[in-house]
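Re-run with default settings, no changes from the original entry. Doing this only to confirm the output is reproducible before filing.
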Amino acid sequence: MEQVNTIYKGYYFKATPLQPAVDILIAELGEAGFESFVETNEGVSAYIQKEEWYETILNTITILKSDEFEITYTFEDIEQTNWNAEWEKNFKPIIVDNLCTVRAPFHEKPNTKYDIIIEPKMSFGTGHHETTHMMIQKLLKTDLKGKSVLDMGCGTGVLAILAAMRGAAIIEAIDIDNWCYINSLENIEKNKTPKVKVYEGDARLLKDKQYDVMIANINRNILLNDIKIYANCLNNNGLLLLSGFYSEDLSLIKKECALRGLKMKSKLEINNWMLAAFCL
């Protein structure tokens, strides 16, 4: 009999070779409903809310059937009280461009200009994934002082928190997932960035909103669907940062942006993951 306070499923994947297997796994598992990922030396750990889980959930994960990779996995129920122990076991601090550290409360305080403390729980966005890492890199090089900023699909709130630390005047963060909404609120309080306002929902919340800088680190399909909304919310000379898609999808993203009057300004790429910056 299952314990009533068990609300997560944890999957532990071992992959050979590691890349690009881990990146593909994270992308496909994210599409299937998994909400949090921690890369390990052997592969990746993935977590999903118990109520969202079903027995055949891995049937759509095509990489598991690929002959190019050897992937094995185990899974288990995780009690709510054991969640912190799970991610503490694997969560290592990261440093981006020697300027920004993303760490857990139990890590030693770093000597970097920006020190972000994150308790990710079931949320995505610890800085370990290439897309979050690139977003941090881009925000570190973008003038945010006095700007209005949106973090769409905020996960842990790490990018919104960095925007606040970088001097943005108005910062709003949105995520459709309740765990992410709650976790962002916790992390905002922990980092003493009360300027960040968090909302639970999707792009429909953007009606009549305008921003100088918009961040959307989600996935290709959501981006393609919502770019028209982002374009309508971007101020003149504003900046739209898109990530969460592969390099082969860039042409689709550029085409949709062009239809909305957006021109690509720059791009970053790490391990086939892309970040593209657009402006009106």
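Helices lie at 21-32, 83-90, 130-140, 158-165, 178-190, 220-233, 250-259. Residues 130-279 form a domain with the Rossmann fold fold (CATH 3.40.50.150).
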